[in-house]
Amino acid sequence: MxxxxxxxxxxxxxxxxxxxxxxxxFSCGLWLIIFIFVLSVIxxxxxxxxxxxxxxxxTRTTSSIRLSDIESQIKENPVTAxxxxxxxxxxxxxxxxYEKDDWRLLALYEKQAAENLLAMQEKxxxxxxxxxxxxxxxSISSIGIITAHSGKEAEFTLAYAxxxxxxxxxxxxxxxxxxxxxxxxMDQISAxxxxxxxxxxxxxxxxxxxxAAAQAAGARNISPSYLEYATGRDTPTDMIKGVATVIVDRxxxxxxxxxxxxxxxxxxxxxxxxxxxxxxxxxxxxxxxPRYRGYSRLYIRMGDASSPRIPARVIGWDKALDLALIKTxxxxxxxxxxxxxxxxxxxxxxLAIGSPLGxxxxxxxxxxxxxxxxxxxxxxxxxIDAAINAGNSGGPIVDSEGRLVGIAFAGIAYxxxxxxxxxxxxxxxxxxxxxxxxxxxxxxxxxxxxxTFSGAEIIYTAPNTPxxxxxxxxxxxIRTINxxxxxxxQGRLISDIQMEVFPRGPGELVLLETIDRExxxxxxxxxxxxxxxxPLLDAAKIDMRERIVTPLFGMVLTPLPSTIxxxxxxxxxxxxxxxxDSAGISEDDPVSINxxxxxxxxxxxxxxxxxxxxxxxxLDTRMQLPAWLDSPDLL
Length: 635
Prior knowledge:
By secondary structure, this protein is an alpha+beta fold. It has 18 helices and 25 strands. It has a six-stranded antiparallel β-barrel with strand order 1-2-3-6-5-4. Strands 7-8-9-12-11-10 form a six-stranded antiparallel beta barrel. The chain has a five-stranded antiparallel β-sheet with strand order 21-22-23-24-25. Helix 3 packs antiparallel against helix 4.
């Protein structure tokens, strides 16, 4: 048998082909992976580039953000826009380049805001919104723009007074008329008009005021009945009829397991025949204080304890001046006039009328013991020695001619004869805002002052206030306010500066001219904001302890060089008459701040320090100093 062997000559080539095919597939896969990788890189790169472009488009400088904020306010709030313009100029004044687009845009915005401000005043004039006309006019004057309406505040105020008179609002009308007369003597026809209305309203002191204005304007043929009434004098017996007892019923409080009636009493007096009355804020605080959660009902009583309680309600209040406007629906036999701007002299006789300890219709006599006492947040108060006790708060203080000179507001417990009264002229300034209802808005700039031989010095600027935003620094002196130089006797400077700003509402521009110790003068235009109930509370919470002790306790501290991150300081300066001064602290005393407690409900700050007084041979001493958070030296 023959064996035949068959040989496959193509087998090696097939294997090689399969290997080549595998290599080819692998190569294609590799290239595909590389292609996908490169494509991914390109896509990611494109996305990154696009993202970068978007980020670059979305990135905004602080300058552009500020300009955008200004632009958003131009139409509706030109005063706010102008305020932001002045802040912008202050922030970027070092790098100002008026050729840059930002500065050209700023100039355009400033012009547009000023034009809108002028247009708003013109519209207010057309609509006879005279209070808005006056407010806008003050802001226009502060930025130095002269218009056809410049210098016409007296004219606008008198127009406002006549409008209120036509509406039957005698109180607002008389207040505005007196203000207009202070700015510019009233003409004969206007004075006679207000004299007639004052006599009809049976307000003798108002009648006397407008009679004098009419005679000064040359009026001669005045009704004999008007002359007789206006030149007469009210007696304390007459005035008593216009004073009531205020009762705030707060239900019961529990003491030692027993329910005790919780009743607060005070006094009030009528200032308008419509039933409007004045009392102290602290008497009716539970009626409007949002922190009070209990029961509270307000009443007045015109007679003795057997007389009925008459419901009353709060119209407006001014906590900074401890004043409140309340209303009851009854007719009164006597109305006190708020027109006299008399400042009593030390030694003048005064009468206090009220309900001490609920004993209604009590009249006590005394003298003005001192002027210029600083007990309230704004302005001065009078010290009197007429007997005042619990229940007198809110009652009228009149002089020997029957003129309202003040409102009783406090006595010092266990120190009989030390009593105080809010000046009637401060009531007149506060009333227009209280009449509008609710909390009276008061202006706030945000710094603390001290009186020196060189003038009113700014010793502290609170954070997040108009003053801090404008970059006003400590150590400057106030030279003028709205172009007016404040010249006051020693001890009155700060209160007079406050009263210059006080009548302005929040949202107005104020021109403040300052001067440093080298004699450099600078003009600052800022917008007032709403004054907090406790002005230094927020500053005490967020500012550094070594800074906040200056306005609260009256000492300027400097960190010791070797312990810059500790609580050890050197007293650099002590403010004359401050708490630190009274505590015997002096310059160069080493001080360590142990603790600063802010007691918000009580409105008090407690500072615990360790100090080595030079006057005591550097003996180590621990002290606790208390201070009110509503300092009277704030603007």
